[in-house]
Design brief:
Blueprint lengths: L9 E4 L3 H12 L4 E5 L7 H4 L3 E2 L5 H20 L12 E5 L2 H14 L6 E4 H7 L8 E5 L3 E2 L4 H12 L3 E4 L3 E6 L2 E7 L2 E4 L2 E4 L5 H5 L8 E12 L7 E4 L23 E7 L4 E6 L11 H9 L9 E13 L5 E4 L6 E5 L43 E2 L5 E2 L1
Helix pairs in contact: 1-6
Length: about 400
């Protein structure tokens, strides 16, 4: 008779960058980890983003960015297929208002001197990027590391598997709770026991923790990105100078999903063989093909060759945007052994290990799963599946 495999110390829901990185870190620390993904590794925003690791202005997120660079470099050093640039490609905030470029450069210089912010225009800007429209002015920052959209997530998944992480694909999973403690996952009416549970399901995380809908600190914001082949493709990452992806951005997430130029914020990120042209910030899932014309129209205002560039693919994803643009990471109040790790600003997420005072994920061990809990929790009446004394799942 074959003995059943022991229950994992930790079960993780979600095969994106957060779930795969957490699984790898925990397995490296010696824990038995099982990661459950509904569709495929990097199926959501972690595999359909624009493909750049970029420093935010927010000091809390900037610290996470710097720690993430270290993790990416360690991953590249230990991975056979993942590569990470040694130096940043640079970021150009481009527009037509010199005063705005000067103000942004001054703000970055004051807050982050090592970003080497400077205003660039005229012949100097043309020398930097020939594809740009001639009447633009830019704030250049020495930040931005292009990375294939799904490559880091896949590399973390491979690293985790090499350290014993069991990865299961298919079916919806939810935390199972008994007597105010997470006891495993409920998958298709079946209980899969685990010592603790981490929910890292991106924009769907709140629904798994509070199905009633009363607690929604993270919402899906849909982005459409087209892969385009641009002659003399820019080497820098490009963004419209007035694009707002920082915490607290308001008024940009229109309830309209009909393609309109004014609902597109320009960005162009260099990649292997093509550039990623974006993007949108929409409250409902769009038809991505329907947005290509609007992406072209807006993109051509900054890079004229975008108007006729060959489109090699279109992708869309739901970004898990939190209320303040910062990730929610920590113990879920009221349920021992239940943790969440999800959410970020409009610009993306980072895979950094936790540091003391922030996320507990990186230093988690099987004997210590209680810490000071963050100030968040469910406000509705929804509950995760309950398990009775006999191990039977219930509502």
């Amino acid at each position: 008779m074959t003995r059943a495999a022991p229950a994992p110390d930790v079960a993780i829901i979600g095969g994106g960058i957060v779930g795969c990185a957490a699984a790898a870190f925990l397995a490296q620390a010696g824990l038995r980890v099982r990661l459950h993904e509904r569709a495929s590794i990097a199926a959501g925003a972690s595999g359909r983003n624009s493909g750049i690791v970029q420093q935010p202005f927010d000091p809390v997120l900037a610290a996470l960015y710097r720690a993430s660079l270290d993790e990416y470099r360690r991953l590249a050093a230990s991975s056979g297929g993942f590569t990470f640039p040694r130096d940043p490609s640079g970021l150009l905030y481009v527009g037509r208002e010199g005063s705005l470029a000067a103000r942004i450069a001054a703000e970055w210089a004051a807050a982050w001197p090592d970003a080497r912010a400077e205003v660039v225009d005229g012949a100097r800007l043309t020398a930097l990027e020939r594809a740009l429209a001639p009447d633009l002015v830019a704030c250049r920052l020495d930040i931005g590391f292009p990375v294939g959209p799904s490559s880091a997530t896949e590399a973390f998944a491979a690293s985790g598997a090499a350290h014993g992480v069991e990865i299961t694909i298919g079916g919806d999973a939810r935390p199972a709770v008994s007597n105010r403690r997470a006891v495993g996952l409920e998958i298709g009416g079946r209980l899969e026991p685990a010592g603790a549970v981490v929910v890292a399901a991106g924009p769907w995380t709140p629904h798994l923790l509070d199905p009633s809908g009363g607690w929604r600190p993270i919402r899906p914001v849909w982005g459409v990105v087209a892969s385009v082949v641009v002659p003399s493709a820019p080497r820098h990452g490009l963004e419209a100078i007035d694009i707002d992806i920082e915490p607290g951005a308001e008024g940009r997430d229109s309830t309209e999903v009909r393609p309109r130029d004014e609902l597109v914020d320009f960005s162009l990120v260099p990649g292997s063989g093509s550039s990623a042209l974006g993007s949108t910030f929409l409250p409902a899932e769009p038809d991505p093909e329907a947005w290509v014309a609007a992406l072209r129209t807006v993109g051509a205002r900054y890079v004229p060759a975008v108007a006729d560039a060959r489109v090699t693919g279109v992708r869309h994803c739901a970004r898990p945007v939190s209320l303040d643009g910062r990730p929610l990471v920590g113990a879920f109040p009221g349920v021992d052994g239940l943790w969440l790790a999800a959410g970020h600003g409009r610009g993306g997420s980072r895979p950094a290990r936790a540091r003391r005072g922030s996320s507990p994920i990186g230093s988690w061990d099987a004997s210590s799963t209680t810490r000071s809990r963050p100030r968040f929790g469910p406000t509705g009446s929804g509950r995760s599946p309950r398990v009775d004394a006999r191990g039977t799942l219930g509502p």
